[in-house]
């Protein structure tokens, strides 16, 4: 009786041996390299099924490429700074560092339990001073290049997290992390000048051929390039001017008022000490309570208030009233909009509400617009009117002519504008990389000398419960001396946005032990760019955009020679499961809190919801560790990879997990049974029909699995292996006493092809068959074209759609010949006697249908 399949014993055994021999250690041997990387995790405490799916995908690719002969780099580390650790520390009364490093230890054990082929010698956490030291150096290098600056500006403030958010971290007016409604505040902040790379970030999207188009569309839209004109409107009775950007210079003669964002600095200057000051300030306070999403929504009521001030129309002898409007945002354009109500719907609604003039300057070709009777703005192309010597021009042609006229008069110029705004990196929290500058009463802002790096984040500090940075109240950190004059100074107490750490970690993996510089140029030149990057679509305009920006900065600072960090990008789908909800007690954990369709607390009937992304809040999570303890890591890996293509959402199925486990048990039983007799040999030239079939199926499977792994169709690759195993099983059952060389070859190829998906059971079986080498060091099998050819085909013959006969024909038979042979079959001749054959339909390699 064969020993039963014991996954935990097998998996522990091989993981120990792999680790002891450093089987997956990457070395710069300068053969053809392949760098595969999954987005590194935040050490939140436990890995979840989304992690497992992401890392399983990467592991298949890494193992496959290694067997193809590539020198593979497959690292793992930890995105360890940020708000969750600090918030957890506050709620649990522990230090963020302890919370973080304890979680890293736990999650590392979990990942190792999955058998992933990581080079653990390259592991680091971004909260290690050996990592963020170099981040501080890069900050100083960027500061010297003018790519870092500090200014007071309106910022997105999250009252829940008590910190500033970048524009990219605001989703539908709410904090991307905690969901709190975002407010606008005026604060002094540090910025990275990502706009200096806006055009390159945009144009290089066309070079990213290995990226999903949906991600590139999101990046292009976020960068938001617009061509138009910058126009200056001089203020009346005040110094200065209002500068606006417009994509519609053809409507300049239709301006009837000016709209400023409530946050625009001119608003206070124009209204201070005037009768309008109180009214304007009251309006601004009311608008502050509206989210950006509400202010930008098409159906929101357009509201505003007159400032009491005017500006001069740059092309007409006409003064323009200046309003503050809720639908104008400071971060878009210049925060000021020339209002053309006849040709912009928001301006039209505003003008109607406040009884402001509407002037038509573009007429459609099929009718005449009357400002008195217009029910909506006309925004399509047309013919210019009421615009001086530009009358009669098509509006598209007039754009260019008017821009040229503005430039000639010195009141405007051609301009390209971007939606992208500079990246605000200041965070008013403790658990992050200290910003390496000091403030001196005499010298102002002074960068910390590079030789004094790192500026260590003090770990002995108590984290504030209110959430504000504790560094401001810690004299040992705060108080310092000015590097320039030696006088008393104070350190910056803001820390960097945690997205800074994840913007260059992939480069540091190439040389994590480098002590003298951020990067070892020789090693990064060898390993970078990343050949295959894997992670969620939710990072399309956050991490991925920042990583592209940082790569270009590192290139210009002389650390990298590449333009883009990731050649290929795979955005995997989510892991989904249905939800269970009690009308009284809310979401329930189905296995623990729901019995026979009813809530265990109140007995009420439970509502089974639709499939949704696994989340703790909806209690529809499945603990990977529990699954591993029950079935083993290989079963979990196999199910995750088989259940859906990587880019699609995956529906969790307990039955699917059971099915994957049964398949591995079948493999175990069969190979354990036949392996002792696999050394019997027979000559391949004397193959019988069964051996020919198995030999052909072996090479067909090699081809199919290889092609499907290359396309990341892991589910269909596994399906092909299941089909192959059934053929092997059938051969063994029909040839109980015969163990041919063909069978030995088929089983060995099967084990090799299966190994990237389930490495533990295949390693055990490989050695059980007498091999002494590691499976991952085996060359990936190649198929023989000659072996793929079917020698004979079984063709079904139908008459008027009904099966009447079958015949065997050569695989390479022509259509003319197969039709001829079908008509010559004795049974077919009999059935067609006295009938007229109208046509014959040939479905290649399958059937003939005779219409008679």
TrEMBL record:
A motif ('KMSKS' region) lies at residues 613-617. It comes from the Bacteria. Residues 692-815 form the Methionyl/Valyl/Leucyl/Isoleucyl-tRNA synthetase anticodon-binding domain. It is an enzyme of class 6 (ligase). It holds the Pfam family tRNA-synt_1_2. GO terms for cellular component: cytosol. This is Leucine--tRNA ligase. It comes from Desulfofervidus auxilii.
């Amino acid at each position: 009786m064969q020993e039963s399949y014991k996954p935990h014993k097998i998996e522990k055994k091989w993981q120990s041996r792999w680790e002891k021999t450093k089987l997956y250690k990457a070395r710069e041997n300068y053969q053809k390299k392949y760098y595969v990387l999954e987005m590194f995790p935040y050490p939140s405490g436990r890995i979840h099924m989304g992690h497992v799916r992401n890392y399983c995908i990467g592991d298949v690719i890494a193992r496959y490429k290694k067997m193809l002969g590539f020198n593979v780099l497959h690292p793992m580390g930890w995105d360890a700074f940020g708000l969750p650790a600090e918030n957890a520390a506050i709620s649990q009364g522990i230090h963020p560092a302890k919370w973080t490093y304890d979680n890293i230890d736990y999650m590392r054990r979990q990942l190792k339990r999955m058998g992933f082929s990581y080079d653990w010698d390259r592991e680091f956490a971004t909260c290690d001073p050996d990592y963020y030291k170099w981040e501080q150096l890069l900050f100083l290098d960027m500061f010297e290049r003018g790519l870092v600056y500090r200014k007071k500006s309106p910022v997105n403030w999250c009252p829940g997290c008590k910190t500033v958010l970048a524009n990219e971290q605001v989703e539908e007016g709410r904090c991307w992390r905690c969901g709190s409604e975002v407010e606008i505040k005026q604060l002094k902040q540090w910025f990275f000048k990502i706009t200096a790379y806006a055009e390159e970030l945009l144009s290089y999207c066309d070079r990213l051929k290995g990226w999903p188009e949906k991600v590139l569309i999101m990046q292009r839209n976020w960068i938001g390039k617009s061509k138009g004109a910058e126009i200056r409107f001089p203020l009346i009775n005040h110094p200065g001017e209002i500068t606006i950007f417009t994509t519609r210079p053809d409507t300049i003669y239709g301006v009837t008022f000016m709209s400023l964002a409530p946050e625009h600095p001119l608003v206070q200057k124009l209204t201070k000490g005037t009768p309008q000051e109180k009214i304007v300030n009251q309006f601004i306070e009311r608008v502050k309570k509206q989210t950006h999403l509400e202010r930008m929504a098409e159906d929101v009521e357009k509201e505003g208030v007159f400032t009491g001030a005017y500006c001069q129309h740059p092309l007409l002898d006409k003064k323009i009233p200046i309003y503050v409007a809720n639908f104008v945002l400071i971060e878009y354009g210049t925060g000021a909009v020339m209002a053309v109500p006849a040709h912009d719907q928001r301006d039209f609604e505003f003008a109607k509400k406040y009884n402001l003039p509407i002037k038509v300057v573009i007429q459609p070709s099929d009718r005449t617009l009357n400002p008195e009777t217009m029910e909506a703005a006309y925004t399509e192309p047309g013919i210019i009117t009421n615009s001086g010597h530009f009358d009669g021009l098509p509006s598209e042609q007039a754009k260019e002519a008017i821009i040229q006229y503005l430039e000639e008069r010195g009141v405007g110029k051609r301009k390209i504008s971007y939606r992208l705004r500079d990246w605000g990196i200041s965070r008013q929290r403790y658990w992050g990389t200290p910003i390496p500058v000091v403030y001196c009463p005499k010298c102002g802002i002074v960068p910390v000398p590079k030789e004094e790096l790192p500026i260590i984040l003090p770990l002995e500090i108590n984290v504030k419960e209110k959430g504000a940075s504790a560094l401001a109240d810690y004299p040992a950190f705060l108080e310092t001396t000015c590097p320039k004059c030696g006088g008393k100074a104070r350190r910056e107490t803001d820390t960097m946005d945690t997205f800074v750490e994840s913007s260059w970690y992939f480069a540091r993996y190439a040389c994590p032990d480098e002590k003298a510089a951020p990067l070892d140029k020789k090693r990064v030149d060898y390993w970078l760019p990343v050949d295959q990057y894997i992670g969620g679509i939710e990072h399309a305009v956050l991490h991925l955009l920042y990583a592209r920006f940082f790569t270009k900065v590192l290139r210009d600072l002389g650390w990298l020679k590449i333009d883009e960090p990731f050649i290929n990008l795979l955005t995997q789908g989510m892991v989904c499961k249905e939800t269970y909800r009690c009308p009284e007690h809310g979401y329930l954990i189905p296995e623990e809190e729901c019995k026979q369709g009813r809530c265990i607390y109140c007995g009420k009937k439970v509502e089974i919801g639709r499939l949704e992304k696994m989340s703790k809040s909806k209690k529809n999570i499945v603990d990977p560790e529990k699954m591993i303890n029950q079935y083993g890591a290989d079963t979990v890996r196999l199910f995750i990879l088989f259940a859906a293509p990587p880019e699609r959402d995956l529906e969790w199925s307990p039955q699917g997990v059971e099915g994957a486990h049964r398949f591995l048990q079948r493999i175990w039983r069969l190979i354990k049974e036949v392996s002792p007799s696999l050394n019997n040999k027979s000559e391949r030239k004397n193959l019988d029909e069964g051996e020919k079939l198995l030999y052909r199926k072996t090479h067909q499977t090699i081809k199919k699995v290889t092609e499907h792994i290359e396309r990341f169709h892991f589910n269909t690759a596994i399906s092909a292996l299941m089909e192959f195993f059934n053929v092997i099983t059938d051969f063994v059952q029909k040839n109980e006493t015969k163990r041919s060389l063909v069978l030995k070859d088929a089983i060995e190829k099967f084990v090799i092809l299966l190994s990237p998906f389930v490495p533990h059971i295949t390693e055990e079986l490989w050695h059980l068959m007498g091999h002494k080498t590691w499976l991952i060091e085996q060359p990936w099998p190649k198929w023989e074209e000659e072996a793929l050819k079917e020698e004979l085909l079984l063709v079904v013959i139908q008459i008027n759609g009904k099966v009447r006969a079958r015949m065997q024909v050569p695989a390479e038979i022509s259509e003319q010949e197969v039709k001829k042979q079908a008509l010559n079959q004795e049974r077919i001749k009999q059935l067609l006697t006295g009938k007229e054959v109208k046509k014959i339909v040939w479905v290649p390699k399958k059937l003939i249908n005779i219409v008679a």
